[in-house]
Amino acid sequence: MNEITTQNSTEIAVLGGLAQEAQYYAKSIANGMIQLGRVLTEAKPLVKHGEWEQWIRENAGCSVRYAQVFMQAYARFGNNAAVAQIGERGKIFKLLALPAGTEEQFLTDHDVSEMSTREVEEAVRKVREEMRIELDEERKARKKAEDRAAELELEADKVPDHIMDELVEKQNTIDAQQRELARVADDGRAALQEAQRLRRENANLSREIEEQNELIEDAQRQYDSVRSELLSLQSVAAKGDAERVPVDELTIDVFASAVRQFIGTCARMPHMGHTFGTMTLSEKNAYDELLRTVEGWAANARQAMNTIAYEEVEIHG
Fold it and tell me: Which of 288, 305, 179 is nearest to 232 (CA)?
């Protein structure tokens, strides 16, 4: 008994909340119409038998007929965000005339929010006419095939076996085409949804790629800055080493070893014309500064080698 009371209390509470929602959405425009259809759809199973019409009048302020229209609108467009942006009930009423299964394609092909009610009505009429023509052609083709089959069946005794075989094959082809048409109609809706999902994913990936490119460009700028600073520091350090006066003498063996090491490291430099031609100015200046240091050192070393030592000779009287 307590369980029944608890269940009834829960249903009453849920129904009370749905009643408040119905009163709120009944005052809205297009989105309210869709949401009102949702509320009515959820409330109907909970309303006691025989009280549905009264519940609608008290909470939604409309007739049963209009309630059915709202519920139909929710069933067909409740999951389509574009419909919520339309802003006019009249347009949604016109959209309800679309043949079943054509809603998604129609909303993809038409910006209903920017169209007038008359334009929506005309576009829906065109879709219905195209669908009617297609169905009429299909019915005519089927009727023609059925009439021909009936005609040949009456003359079965007069018709050669190979003609009957062809007839059966054509009828089988017609049946297969009918099944394929039904399958394509279902697959078309699924393909449209998949295409919309892929477009969203592509847009997200494009944004991510742009963000990654910006990060890469920032990292490259930082790398170039650090590299330029490092080359500058190396230039200063090399210049200091060249200008520092050593406290010990340089032997020929040590000098020869240093020259061989220098040439082994820097022998490629005279052949780097193309590389220097494509360098940034800051990198080129760093190389130039280091080369000037080497040139200055070589000039000073040459001057030192050209020094002539004179011995003082003491003259005795």
Answer: 288
